[in-house]
């Protein structure tokens, strides 16, 4: 209570609409990690500022750091 747990994964949806864990192509890794880190920080800031809620990483979440 009082917060959220973020659980991120790397992959994509297949044609049937099911999630498939899949490694990123090496040429996009840096950009994806940067985008995810930026998104997560904005999520933390927005929930704290507007709703006084906290966000933490789930223990099984992909680590973008």
From TrEMBL:
Gene3D superfamilies: Sigma factor-binding protein Crl monomer
GO BP of this protein: positive regulation of DNA-templated transcription
Keywords, in A-Z order: Activator, Cytoplasm, Transcription, Transcription regulation
Cell membrane found in the keyword field: no
Pfam families: Crl (PF07417)
The protein's name in its UniProt record: Sigma factor-binding protein Crl
Record lineage: Bacteria, Pseudomonadati, Pseudomonadota, Gammaproteobacteria, Vibrionales
């Amino acid at each position: 209570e009082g917060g959220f747990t973020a659980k991120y994964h790397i992959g994509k949806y297949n044609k049937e609409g099911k999630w498939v864990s899949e490694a990123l192509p090496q040429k996009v890794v840096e950009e994806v990690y940067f985008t995810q880190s930026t998104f997560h920080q904005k999520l933390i800031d927005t929930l704290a500022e507007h709703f006084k809620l906290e966000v933490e990483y789930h223990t099984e979440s992909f680590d973008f750091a």
